[in-house]
Structures are given as structure tokens and as C-alpha cells.
Task: inverse folding
């Protein structure tokens, strides 16, 4: 990952900056889980953007 504000490169595996002004700083992990769309939709009010042609996002 590249942070254009600090011009630092981050290792996703190590969760820390590997190059640039923030070298050796660590990212704070956030909780995550794997779920199905059905579970997600039941638990949250969510809108989904579908790719064209299923939505009006093709620039027409």
C-alpha cells in the first residue's frame, strides 16, 4: 500500500511502514469477519452498487 500524504509504503503482511517518513510505524488492526451477503443484509441497512448493465453507472 502507498500513502500519498506521507509518501510511505506499507506492508499489508507486516502491518507497518517499510519505506518513507513513517518507516517502522505500525498499523492498528481493526476487527473483521467473513460473512455471507444474506447475513450482512439482515444485520445492516446497506446499498449495493451493481456494475453495468445492472445499474446506471455506465455513463449514459
Result:
Amino acid at each position: 500500500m502507498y500513502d500519498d500524504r506521507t509518501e510511505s509504503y506499507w506492508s499489508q503482511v507486516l502491518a507497518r511502514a517499510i519505506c518513507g517518513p513513517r518507516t517502522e510505524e505500525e498499523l492498528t488492526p481493526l476487527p473483521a469477519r467473513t460473512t455471507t451477503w444474506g447475513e450482512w443484509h439482515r444485520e445492516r441497512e446497506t446499498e449495493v452498487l451493481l456494475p453495468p448493465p445492472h445499474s446506471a453507472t455506465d455513463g449514459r
